[in-house]
Amino acid sequence: MKFFWVYLVAAFIFLAIDAVWLGYVARDFYKSRMGDLLLDQPRFAIAAGFYAIFVIGLVYFAIAPGLAAGSFWLAVFNAGLFGMFCYMTYDATNLSTMKGFDATVAMVDIIWGAALSAFTAGVTYAIASAFSLWHN
Question: Could you tell me if residue 85 is inside a domain?
Fold first, then answer.
């Protein structure tokens, strides 16, 4: 049950911040650099599947080990690496296989994935610790 509550906290944080990033902060950046590669409307079911699975990995590989060890920084560090590796897989694959995929977008996206993952892990760790959501 502890995994479930930590997952819900992490999912809420990750989704809320990424929605602001994609919907407002970086929307014009992506549009200006990717143009015709972008759909008029995102495929929300596919995005939901990614988010659901990604956050499971974030909790399993980063947040849970940090909580189990009582180490905020372990959670943050592992999450940053996890985010970087996952986002880099996507962006490097696109750079190597697609015409018109922008290298600047790839770099920003990789940095964003690492930063968002690390931030999500840190806040989730703090909330889980404060509310005793994780007991060994």
Answer: yes
**Is there a domain that residue 136 lies in?**
no
Q: What is the CA radius of gyration of the chain?
A: 16
The tokens of 80 are what? Answer: 């940053």
Single-letter code of the amino acid located at 106 = A
Task: Answer yes or no: is 135 within a domain.
Answer: no
Domain interval for residue 47: 2-130
Largest separation between any pair of C-alpha atoms in the chain? 50
User: Domain total for the chain?
Assistant: 1
Q: How far apart are CA 67 and CA 74, in angstroms?
A: 9
> Mind listing the pLDDT tens digit of every residue in the chain (136 residues)?
899 999 999 999 999 999 999 989 998 999 999 988 888 888 989 999 999 999 999 999 999 999 999 999 999 999 999 999 999 999 999 999 999 899 999 999 999 999 999 999 999 999 999 999 987 5
- Provide the whole-model pTM: 0.95
Residue 36 CA to residue 38 CA, distance in Å, equals 5
